[in-house]
Design brief:
By secondary structure, the protein is α+β, with helices and mostly antiparallel strands. The chain is about 60% helix and about 15% strand. The chain has four helices and six strands. It has a four-stranded antiparallel sheet, covered by helices on one side. A two-stranded antiparallel sheet has the order 1-2. The chain starts with a helix and ends with a helix.
Length: about 190
């Protein structure tokens, strides 16, 4: 049976993972700025194996609105280009036979609002994950009270500590969302 400290540590770990996942998801949301992380989810069929672009090529950002993709194996250039075209990035790569250039146009106001909604949805998913971690920890404490005779006042005290932890992670999620919204609405 888990101890009170192990229960709290497990809840905190779950909350940290939810926050890390949110940051990762936010990084893959395309803003008007060139960010190599938007290619993290683009998989290329490379000799029958789905391989991420960032493992097949050097990705450079010469300016704020351009990514340059230089494949390590020049014969894979066409496969990378096709994978980017088939992805949901909404960007068409330009090829000169050696490298691919991905121009990042400034998104329209309508597109920025769509991206803002998408980010709010991602933030809400992270909040749900944090709240689920809180629920699981509180249930474990209630079970300890019932099974092991943990005193009522100690259970309440630990549930308050878990609530404070939850509030802290929710505020971090809100802060990350506000930062991403500001970045999205910049022109």
């Amino acid at each position: 049976m888990a101890t009170v400290e192990e229960t709290k540590a497990k809840a905190k770990e779950k909350m940290e993972r939810a926050l890390e996942a949110l940051h990762s998801n936010f990084a893959s949301v395309r803003t008007g700025r060139a960010n190599p992380m938007v290619l993290d989810r683009v998989l290329v069929d490379y000799y029958g194996t789905k391989t991420p672009v960032n493992q097949m090529a050097a990705i450079k950002t010469p300016d704020a609105h351009l990514l340059v993709i230089e494949p390590y194996d020049k014969s894979s250039l066409k496969a990378i280009e096709n994978a980017i075209n088939e992805s949901d990035l909404g960007i068409s790569p330009n090829s000169d036979g050696q490298v691919l250039r991905l121009p990042f146009p400034t998104p329209t106001e309508e597109r920025r609002k769509e991206l803002t909604k998408q980010c709010k949805s991602l933030a809400e998913e992270a909040k749900v994950a944090v709240r689920n971690a809180r629920r699981d920890a509180n249930n474990a404490l209630d079970k300890m009270k019932k099974d092991e005779g943990l005193p009522e006042d100690e259970v309440k005290h630990e549930q308050n500590n878990i609530q404070k932890l939850t509030d802290d992670f929710i505020s971090q999620i809100d802060s990350a969302l506000a930062t991403k919204d500001k970045e999205l609405m910049e022109i």
